[in-house]
Amino acid sequence: MSRQHLRLGVLGAARIAPAGILDPAGRLSDVEVTAIASRDRRRGRLFAELYNIATVYGGYEELLADPDIDAVYIALPNALHAEFLLRALGEGKHVLCEKPLAANHEEALLIEDEAAKHPDLVVMEAFHWRYHPLAEDILANLSELGPLRKLHVRFAFPLLRRHDIRWDFRLAGGAMMDVGCYAVSLINMIMKSDPQAVTANAAVAAPEIDRRMDAELLFPGGLRASLTASMLSTAPPGRYAQIEGASGRMTVRNPFAGHRSGAIRMSGTALSSTATSYPSERTTYYYQLKAFVAAIRGVSPNLTPPSTSVRNLHLIDAVYRAAGLPVRPSRIVPANGSPDHKDNSTKT
């Protein structure tokens, strides 16, 4: 095989794997998924047969040790992300890791520190929406709004599978971790300073697991932002963002999956009544994998490096604390200690 190909291994035969990596890889001529690791051998073999993957490993460590793999896609439960990301770096692999990058802020800092020791390796958090043209257009149109005054982001859907890993506190589950991280990533993309979590209210499915989270954030200068993240509540399903400025408003429909009826509508500006929609042929995941390869080749930037994950998880942890819920536990950072790092984020 030509060394121009990126030889990719997949950790975890998760539900997200086909849409997140396997289908997009089939559309890119310079990417080949050569191995998949799953502790459920049957499921791993099924994916291998469907996507013509040559090797199936029963252990994640076996795949990471494979010298013929250049990069890995981590599709494991949240609580395992940091552990196997760090192992992948130790084996010299580039990493595309599902969101959120880690279980909490402390783990994200540890990853940031370790990634800095491997400047030749790309570590990209899989916020696929950031690589879609819709995200570019949000940023390009912000100046039309004038000074920003208000921001609201909502991501609500019903997760009806009772035994889904996203309901498991030990696996770093919860609405804020699953869909709230999207809202946080959009807010942090727009705002360059870090906010204070003023209030947060959680509806719980279990004592430590939020099924819905509503939070109010205050940025330096007085701008207020709010978010709603729901996996099961009376909140109607929907994904949108509203960004208000002194000169107008931007409403973004489905900002996190632009290929699924995503659209931007401007009002009260020179672009009033202007609506931009996006074709469905190329998914957000396609754009993400293409960007991952380009970042490895050194021809385009990594928009979601560990530094952005540190900001996102700092805010997610702050929201949990404001709601009176515990931060998601770590498997690699002692509960009574913290890794050796410098924390440059704003404290809340």
Automatic annotation (TrEMBL):
Keywords: Oxidoreductase. The keyword Transferase does not apply. It holds the Pfam family GFO_IDH_MocA. GO terms for molecular function: nucleotide binding; oxidoreductase activity. InterPro entries: Gfo/Idh/MocA-like_OxRdtase_N, Gfo/Idh/MocA_domain, GFO_IDH_MocA-like_dom, NAD(P)-bd_dom_sf. Residues 339-348 have a biased composition (Basic and acidic residues). It comes from the Bacteria. Residues 329-348 are annotated as: Disordered. Residues 144-250 form the GFO/IDH/MocA-like oxidoreductase domain. Residues 7-123 form the Gfo/Idh/MocA-like oxidoreductase N-terminal domain. PANTHER family: OXIDOREDUCTASES, TRANS-1,2-DIHYDROBENZENE-1,2-DIOL DEHYDROGENASE. Belongs to the Gfo/Idh/MocA family. This is Oxidoreductase.
